[in-house]
């Protein structure tokens, strides 16, 4: 059974940091691109970042320089290190795994940045 488990969200003040985790099971982790979307109330879903199976990374302009992805292949886990958080980063963050037309989604984790 394919599962993606996201965790690490919480409440943080502006300028603070959080680390989100996305743990995967049921598929070959390194065969997939793993990434994060976020969705804030009343806004469209936004792609935040992703890392390919060979380690290429992508970051949205809105988080470039503040967010960093890392992975621990032995644990089938990717991390989203979020620094210098802003109130506009407040959203539910979802991790996903994608290979071709196949996408798996994890449940969301809430990130709230207070001003």
Entry summary:
The chain is mainly beta and 115 residues long. The chain has strands at 3-7, 10-13, 18-25, 33-39, 46-51, 57-59, 67-72, 77-82, 91-99, 102-105, 109-114.
Structure description:
With 115 residues, the chain is mostly beta strands. The protein contains no helices and eleven strands. The chain has strands at 3-7, 10-13, 18-25, 33-39, 46-51, 57-59, 67-72, 77-82, 91-99, 102-105, 109-114. The strands form two sheets. Strands 2, 4, 5, 6, 9, 10 and 11 form a seven-stranded mixed sheet that branches. A four-stranded antiparallel sheet has the order 1-3-8-7, with no helix packed on it.
Mean pLDDT: 94
Low-confidence stretches: none
| Global morphology | globular
- Whole-number radius of gyration? 13 Å
Q: What percent of residues adopt helix (DSSP H or I)? A: under 10%
End-to-end CA span: 40 Å
Compressed to H and E, one letter per element, the order equals EEEEEEEEEEE
Beta content comes to over 45%
Count every beta strand, where a strand is a DSSP E run of 2 or more residues: 11
Largest sheet: 7 strands, mixed
Number of helices: 0
Structural class comes to mainly beta
